[in-house]
Amino acid sequence: MEPWRTGITASDETNIHIYGYDVTSLMRGATFTDTIFLLHQGRLPSKEERALFDAILIGVSDHGPAAPSAAAARIVASGNRKSLEAAVAAGVLAMGDAHGGAAYDCMQLIADGIAIAQRDAISLQETAQRVVAEAKAARRRLPGMGHRVHTEDPRTRVLFEMARAYGVAREGVAFMQAMEMSARDLIRPLPVNIDGALSAILHDLGFLPPVGKLIFIIGRVAGVTAQVMEEHRREKPMRVRIPVMYDGPSPREIK
Amino acid sequence: MEPWRTGITASDETNIHIYGYDVTSLMRGATFTDTIFLLHQGRLPSKEERALFDAILIGVSDHGPAAPSAAAARIVASGNRKSLEAAVAAGVLAMGDAHGGAAYDCMQLIADGIAIAQRDAISLQETAQRVVAEAKAARRRLPGMGHRVHTEDPRTRVLFEMARAYGVAREGVAFMQAMEMSARDLIRPLPVNIDGALSAILHDLGFLPPVGKLIFIIGRVAGVTAQVMEEHRREKPMRVRIPVMYDGPSPREIK
Amino acid sequence: MEPWRTGITASDETNIHIYGYDVTSLMRGATFTDTIFLLHQGRLPSKEERALFDAILIGVSDHGPAAPSAAAARIVASGNRKSLEAAVAAGVLAMGDAHGGAAYDCMQLIADGIAIAQRDAISLQETAQRVVAEAKAARRRLPGMGHRVHTEDPRTRVLFEMARAYGVAREGVAFMQAMEMSARDLIRPLPVNIDGALSAILHDLGFLPPVGKLIFIIGRVAGVTAQVMEEHRREKPMRVRIPVMYDGPSPREIK
Amino acid sequence: MEPWRTGITASDETNIHIYGYDVTSLMRGATFTDTIFLLHQGRLPSKEERALFDAILIGVSDHGPAAPSAAAARIVASGNRKSLEAAVAAGVLAMGDAHGGAAYDCMQLIADGIAIAQRDAISLQETAQRVVAEAKAARRRLPGMGHRVHTEDPRTRVLFEMARAYGVAREGVAFMQAMEMSARDLIRPLPVNIDGALSAILHDLGFLPPVGKLIFIIGRVAGVTAQVMEEHRREKPMRVRIPVMYDGPSPREIK
User: Fold this and answer.
1) Does A249 contact D86 at a Cβ distance shorter than 8 Å?
2) Which of A227, B50, B194, C138 could lock A70 by a disulfide, CB 3.0 to 4.6 Å apart?
3) Contact predicate D240/B101, CB 8 Å
4) Which residues of C touch D36 (CB under 8 A)?
5) Which ipTM value was assigned to this complex?
């Protein structure tokens, strides 16, 4: 078999290097957040970038036992008491397009928008007008915008404040704010939500769209593991009783 | 259906509290590592505890594409280009008893050892002698001790040095060092390996044995996600060609 | 890399042989149930063995949306609309020790019991008395026996009737019936349940204990896939609303 | 919580009905293949339909240890000896778009083609010409057609022969044959492969496109479970040694 090529990690029985850094020097002089950044970008973050990246990972880390990721993990834990990894994996699997996938879509929207602005030499504001108008015409939902309830997610405000204060905000943040203005003009007020905020900042930190989803997974695994432990410590096996209503065919015989 | 009880996270549409802390205050004033600690202990770590916890998470974060977690994730990514979460979940599933499970077993060994010492009012050194003698008689392997090659894992030394320097080392570290001395006396030199070192420190940081495994998962997911991204960016679908040798029955007919 | 050895399947680009049978001859002259049997035993079943094996696979195929396997699959499908395989995999992961694992444990009990009877040259009835007495003394639950409600599972009766009618019942069925008599004498009436019945018959069909669990998985995947399809066709994304009650620490500030 | 609605299975502690049939009557009078068909169509198959459905499930059941599904399952089994379900789930996760996903895409192609023919009142042959011409212009690959090597998959021939002999072949088979003729005219000989053959027949049996993928999963789980068992019985934990070549940054210091 051909060797598998990798540019990430060199390891033998005694030494591990991640993108050229000896893992023991990272253990002594870096944080886990630095290392996640390094693994996904090939470089260590600045102090300001690290602060934003920490805030994003914390912001998605847990949303309680009813989020699909936590609920799936707890139900698996309920039927499978011995395999902790099975429960955590089920939680990861729930992070699809509808749950945790908005970051991927929104980061793609941002990357595409900025590419259009450059290609056509128009402003981000003009680009946003065009993107919103097209989405409106196609009755397509705008990822990263709007809330189920008419209140602002406080995590969004914190992320944008920190991005400005730390000098991290660049084109991604600018484009999402242009999108918010365009939506208000052309559709209705659709404030940037948490997915939109973290997508804008992850773009400005240099991440590619699919990595947006992977970072959601990394952050949320912290919460899913905690939910699984609580299920094991507080609840009995097979404790979940979901009410069911059958509305299928009446009893019949095999002919 | 009965509501699901939780002591971890209170959330509504606009606010999330983790063990009583508003998530936005964690985003502003804590690190992701702090939040992982909080989610699993119900309290924030001290500065010294955080440094050790960071070092442990970094130390297990990646071991290259050939580790079972990374290899399973890459093979799934190779057949499944659209579902990033499927590949990451497969990586999590590879972290069983043989890969990443040593922390659980070793933390249990430490917790049992310390409980025996207290119950029988004997020293940790005496307890370790007894535990090693029993394992030797039963030809049972000691988790967290010994290496495949005759060299020391540099991560072990760094963790123990940091644990002492930061005042985090307590009974867990003392017990594993007593185990090392006892093994040298009764069996042969079996230095504490990385699994043994992180188990000792996680015990001293207040974690329960199963959490040892969950922390391995949290740390390693950082690396597995990076391995999956590299597979997507550098390799073609279905590229893995494993050589196979068939040694089963010869061709035959259905009777 | 060393080639991976296998005695199951020989395949090249144009031909596939399973334990020596050309797959096209199986397609023409065998059933899927025959092929499952072949893959796990290396031989095709007799007509009578196939009838029992079909009955077992059907008997475990579905238990409605509230079983942990189906519930986990549906919750994952609810957050992840694009990856059908993610939902099915989550269903598989829920089949642990508490849900679907009884077959493994009960088949081990049967295999151990029969081995004891042979080793000590005592009857299955005498062995069962000893096993039940030991379980009673150790307050250990007997796998495959007893019901949550005081009624018999009709699937058990059908399996035992078919096993007798088709001449498949041997030592496994005899041992479980001896266990039922011994439990009545020494503990209280604990009728053989569906897990016990299929374990007895799978033993008599020549399967090893861990295969008992794998057969449960094969059968139940038929139902889990149907549950996932129904979730996609009838329900909206993110539709599951699990009620939550927080009972953790009160709001507090980071010090 | 609202009860979960289902039209598939009614169950209480003692009785289970699948689409109106008592599970014990299915155990006595049906096959597992009948039950899979019933779970996904709401009706039992005719004898002829069952023969084709058996042939399809057998045809996809195993392709040896090097297929991504089996390889992923074996690597997980190698690092995780205790959780059989974890290994099987990893195998399921490998069945994505590139491995096992062709049935979904090809069934969609067939359903769309037949819908176009009906809408525009043109023949299937004319429709196929149009579809092939469009795919050629867009340089888009045609799912279910062509082989990696220049030989015919014998499973394709068997499926089409059986479909004709049993009177199951209808519009789906006709459309794929029209596609083959059109490809020969407009591109080059691209014989219908196994994915195309089973897609045509599953369409004619009344299945929806996503179910094509689920049926691949059901069939392949039979093989994946056998591969996992063989890994446990023949191989040691952690036995897989994948050769790795590092081509990333040279060693460097943290600044």
Assistant:
1) no
2) A227
3) no
4) 32, 61, 222
5) 0.96
